[in-house]
Write a structure and sequence with these properties.
Layout: H1 3-76, H2 79-82, H3 85-98, E1 102-109, E2 114-118, H4 132-140, E3 142-144, E4 157-165, E5 168-176, H5 178-186, E6 195-200, E7 231-237, E8 240-248, E9 254-260, H6 262-265, H7 267-281, H8 283-356, H9 363-392, E10 401-403, H10 405-415, H11 417-422, E11 425-430, E12 438-440, H12 442-460, E13 464-473, E14 476-483, H13 513-523, E15 527-532, E16 538-545, H14 554-557
Parallel strand pairs: 11-13
Antiparallel strand pairs: 1-2, 1-5, 3-4, 4-5, 6-9, 7-8, 8-9, 10-12, 13-14, 14-16, 15-16
Helix pairs in contact: 1-7, 1-8, 8-9, 9-10, 10-12, 12-13
Length: 558
């Protein structure tokens, strides 16, 4: 494709995209902005509702755990034990070690006076019979107070439980560390303009507020929720919009309030809106870039097509080379077999002379007998090599026949026996003896196996193992060739069958071997997969059908 064609295509795409996309783009942007804002505001409300509910549950759990702890202490210990100062000190040390929220603990008799006290203050002489909380706990059995100053002269609140024992009524009372309790509220993330605090039913702060003041300060809430759930309200505070979630805390007269500035939470939406405006302003440029990307994509597809054609050409050249190599191997094998036959006959003639006793006996005759045996052994070895060469070169044209994959794997591995022995690489075969014959082209399958074994040898280099396994499955037969090499990096696995892709150094590989293997198996109706991890070796798995697709040789076509 010429450069002028690319230019015409580029401007054609620009005009088409501008004409059919610009107006719908503006309309779509306006619609998306409105829908996004509405959805974002709903999400903001839901998130606030969820945050308030979660924080309410956390605070309620904190209070319930403290109540349960005190009730358990009162139930499992007698008044005599708890009124013993030394015993109470041990109990307080034990619970303080597991829960630092308790500030002090005291045992109060039914007359309001301390029977025992453990804490940093001198309260043994203090009598609570006239305090409102004393009457409440004696009446209800459990009391959680508001935050107050009390005899301790700092903001705190107490939890008190009543215990009746053998006609005696006594109270176990504990002061909760206000800092621990306040931290449960303060940890809420509300942004720069947000706030979180607890108020009682008289709108008195139980925890400090960022903008409302310290604890025990009165604040004014515009609304008071009536139900048990979370109520969402919005108003303006000093000109700043506020959205608040308010919910009552169970078993208390407190309400949890969490406030947020919706403009802070909507800042991503505002940034998105600005981005949309910028996007519209640069719409023309983006359309031009889109046209450029389209042209680049077309060039990439064309380049990929050229590479595929190059790979096909390379596969044809490789096939021609293999055919020439096969003919050369056949010629060499025939030429070598003739002198090997003469050598074997001569060795047999010498052995006959020795056996007839014509040469007599002696060390020289024994050495000659040993030499004849060595000649026979090496001739047999040479004949084995030439027969392998003839087996490899017996057919160079496509031919379908019944193929024993086990025999083909053993035969191909034997070609590389010298090289694997030289590199100290062990070839292990685990061949299924009941493997059925398959109808395919033996020569092409042999080339596939040879290519994979050579790759495995190159990957290992020295001192390793190659495992060849055959088995059956529901689709046909399976051949696994695994090596103990360094493996293939994960990012390369998707590219190993691409033409011209290689992990070998420049000049040591063409990158066509596995591509040809993949193409060959596809033509034969088979598949190949690779499984590898860095440092764990590589396994190629070949699936072949029992009967491959029908094809004809050049002679049949003629």
């Amino acid at each position: 494709m010429s450069s002028s064609t690319y230019s015409r295509l580029k401007w054609y795409l620009v005009l088409i995209i501008m004409g059919f996309s610009l107006v719908p783009l503006f309309a779509l942007g306006y619609f998306i902005h409105n829908e996004f804002r509405q959805t974002y505001e709903e999400k903001l409300t839901d998130n606030l509702r969820l945050m308030v509910a979660n924080r309410r549950d956390a605070i309620s759990m904190f209070l319930n755990e403290r109540v349960v702890q005190l009730q358990m202490l009162a139930d499992i210990h007698t008044f005599g034990e708890m009124s013993d100062q030394a015993y109470l000190n041990k109990v307080f040390d034990a619970i303080h070690g597991t829960s630092s929220s308790f500030f002090d603990i005291g045992v109060i008799g039914q007359n309001g006076g301390h029977e025992a006290y453990c804490g940093p203050f001198d309260l043994m002489q203090v009598n609570y019979k006239d305090e409102p909380w004393f009457h409440q706990v004696m009446l209800k059995g459990l009391y959680i107070s508001d935050v107050f100053m009390g005899f301790r002269n700092f903001p705190h609140f107490i939890i008190a439980v009543k215990r009746q024992e053998a006609g005696r009524t006594w109270i176990l009372r504990a002061t909760i560390d206000s800092e621990v309790f306040t931290s449960l509220v303060r940890n809420v993330r509300t942004g720069k303009q947000g706030d979180a605090y607890i108020v009682n039913d008289k709108d008195v702060l139980q925890t400090p507020s960022r903008f409302g003041g310290k604890a025990l300060t009165r604040v004014v809430l515009p609304v008071h929720p009536q139900g048990e759930g979370v109520e969402i309200q919005s108003w303006r505070r000093d000109g700043v919009p506020i959205i608040a979630g308010i919910t009552p805390l169970p078993n208390t007269n407190w309400r949890l309030v969490i406030m947020e500035n919706p403009e802070e939470e909507l800042s991503p939406l505002i940034r998105t809106r600005s981005l949309i405006y910028a996007l519209f302003a640069g719409c023309g440029l983006m359309i031009f870039v889109g046209a450029y990307v389209t042209v680049s994509s077309a060039v990439s597809r064309l380049r990929a097509s050229d590479r595929q054609r190059a790979a096909m050409d390379a596969a044809v050249i490789q096939s021609s080379k293999m055919a020439s190599l096969g003919k050369l191997a056949a010629g060499v094998a025939h030429e070598v077999n003739n002198p090997l036959s003469i050598i074997r006959e001569s060795a047999g003639w010498i052995r006959d002379i020795i056996n007839d006793g014509e040469l007599g006996e002696g060390p020289a005759v024994d050495e000659l007998q040993e030499a004849v045996s060595d000649i026979d052994r090496h001739v047999e070895r040479a004949r084995t090599v030439t027969h392998r060469m003839l087996g490899f070169a017996r057919r160079m044209e496509p031919l379908q026949e019944d193929v024993d994959l086990n025999m083909l794997a053993n035969q191909t591995a034997s070609f590389l026996e010298n090289e694997t022995r030289h590199r100290n690489i062990e070839v292990v075969t685990e061949l299924d003896p009941d493997l059925p014959l398959i109808t395919t082209d033996a020569n092409q399958i042999q080339q596939v196996i040879l290519n994979l074994l050579e790759n495995a040898i190159d990957a290992i280099d020295r001192d390793g193992q190659i495992t060849v396994i055959t088995r059956t499955d529901d689709m046909g037969v399976v051949l696994n060739i695994a090596d103990s090499g360094p493996g293939i990096p994960k990012e390369y696995l998707a590219k190993v069958f691409d033409p011209f892709f290689t992990t070998k150094p420049t000049g040591e590989g063409t990158g066509l071997g596995l591509s040809i293997v993949y193409s060959t198996l596809s033509k034969l109706g088979g598949t190949i997969k690779v499984n590898s991890e860095s440092g764990q070796g590589t396994t190629f798995t070949i699936h072949l059908p029992l009967t491959g697709p029908r094809f004809t040789s050049a002679k049949e076509e003629a």
